[in-house]
Amino acid sequence: MSRRIRVYGPVPSRRFGLSLGVDVVPHKVCSYDCIYCQLGGTTEKTITRRLFYPVEEIVGDVRAALATGPSPDVITLAGSGEPTLYAGLGRLIRILKELTEIPVVLLTNGGTLFLDDVLADIMAVDILAPSLDAGDEVTFERVNQPCQAVTFHRMTTGLMNAISRFRGDVRLEVMIIKGMNDSGAELGYLTRLVKTLAPGNVDINTPVRPHPSASVSPCSARSLQRFAHGFGPDAAVIADFKRCSVAGGSTQQASLLKTRILAMLSRRPCSVEDVSRAMEIHRHEAIKLLDLLLEEGAIQQRRTNERVFFWAPVTDTIDHH
Ligand code: SF4
Predict the structure, then answer these.
(1) Is-above-0.85 flag for pTM?
(2) Pocket residues for ligand 1 (CB within 6 Å)?
(3) What residues form DSSP beta bridges with 177?
């Protein structure tokens, strides 16, 4: 696998600024199969940790990206699945901390934090960003469709342990989906749980981009505010992408890619996967660039036959004189 695929960006992130993404697991190896996942269905649902790639290779990829690209605000360990399933995570984090002073962020679905080895591995990151989408077992099963080994009790116990022991910043992300986990009862369950966890920061999100599944729809801003109010003063609805302070700070490489994507989308509608393949960029990078183009009003999107397509309306450039 090329460096281009395992380390991507830096790309603007609504939550963390300019982020260099590091993908440490193969596509859709995950302990969950969330109904709102932008990456498609989980192909391997597991909590078995494996050394998918040698740690040295990933470090080499990061080193090369830092030496040649713009300096990111953070290095984000994420992936096309659940990054804590990477058995080399602890060593990778230690080496990255020696390599650079750039803060290291870990995005995790939180479902593996009940495992002692995962808990030990993640303690050295600067920012721990777990997810929590349900305040009860039934909603957890419906929204996250976890691996059998991850019960609601194990997930919440793991989260609680991790948050209470962790010494860096915690940013909990809660995804609210219309008709799935936005009821008054769920607001009550989630509020109780969030208050018990006391993560410090809570980012409230909703799937704004059209999703291949018609059952996944965004909540209204008003509904999200209800959750923010319930969770307390440290909770905020994540700001629009266009308001992100780094959104305009796209690099030369990103501008070039945006131009090429625009040219492609003016010829035919494409999915995220089409753009990722054609541009030879990571899916996350394709998503970020498409988001930027949407915010700029340069492209449009629609859902057709369980897929989401993007296209660029063609403007009439014929000189009539
Ligand atoms: S945890 Fe993340 S990668 Fe896994 S299914 Fe859910 S959204 Fe997708």
Answers:
(1) no
(2) 30, 32-34, 37, 39, 42, 81-82, 109
(3) 218
